[in-house]
Amino acid sequence: MLETTIAGSLPKPAWLAEPETLWAAWKPERGDALAEAQRDAMRLVLMEQEDAGIDIVTEGEQSRQHFVHGFLETLTGLDFDNPKRIGIRDGRYQADCPRVIGAIARTGPVHAAEARFARAHTTRKLKFTLPGPMTIVDTVADEHYGDRATLAMAFAALLNDEARDLEAAGVDVIQFDEPAYNVYMDDVKTWGIASLERAILGLGCTTAIHICYGYGIDANRDWKAGLGREWRQYEDIFPVLAASGIDQVSLECRNSRVPMSLIGLLGDKDVLVGAIDVASAEIETPEQVAAVIREALEFVPADRIQPCTNCGMVPLGRDVARAKLQALAAGAAIVRAELARR
Length: 342
Ligand code: ZN
Known about the structure:
Elements: H1 32-52, E1 56-57, H2 69-72, E2 76-88, E3 93-105, H3 112-120, E4 125-131, H4 133-137, E5 141-142, H5 148-168, E6 173-177, H6 185-199, E7 206-210, H7 218-225, H8 234-242, E8 248-252, E9 270-276, H9 286-297, E10 305-309, H10 318-341
Parallel strand pairs: 1-4, 3-5, 4-6, 6-7, 7-8, 8-9, 9-10
Antiparallel strand pairs: 2-3
Helix pairs in contact: 1-10, 5-6, 6-8, 9-10
């Protein structure tokens, strides 16, 4: 009950990439030195999660520069050498994105080696994250398919092949990250959810979606400041997720303006309740974490709640991330003990 987990990413050691930086360049040269450094970093983040008492761990995305482009880098049909600056998330901010210039295909498994390495170095349940099809479509410049729904289904087919490889590597939970879901609510209903269903087709492992209002970058802060006192975007899409085949939904609850009551719209899904703010270096107390979990318990039973972080922790300092992991586990333990006494 109340198994703890994280949204996905963790900070990279300073010898692997510049700390507290999004899209940070690798420090080691490409090739064997980089691969070895990434494996070393994976061992560290697995150990740090175990030491903190996290139940369902990840490899912390230590081998990816960016949560979307990490999956895309080895695909054919994309041009990374001549990126195009486009407005993403409905023009909220500009980003240099790879161009889709032909039919997309995998040249082989993308992350299976990382998953196998992580599987060999922890006995805990292992989660692996992939970008969701709708968010990928929103983070590339399409010059070939000409239609976002068609492109999403093409990416979803590749994601499904990748997810099957990850499952075969021993991954227990595969999570698709979809920060685009609260931007294009109508598209979620018309083609977003269909592409997610395609991505999880035939999987036997647990499947999850992480939805989110974005990292603490200025463009996101400004956007969120204008969203009003309550963020109700999910009210539209939670019934759609509830009717889907996805097993778990991860969202931000700590310092969030998403009304907690909305998680009651998620039907029988497990809810990964974000109880750790990733946009602040302030360390939550275990009691603050426990308070978020208790509020969630008013709407979802304990056997369907997993205390989690609001989002990836890659922009934080390592010491801050470690302390937040400990607070998360300690807060969950408080509530578990309370439930046991009832
Ligand atoms: Zn997120």
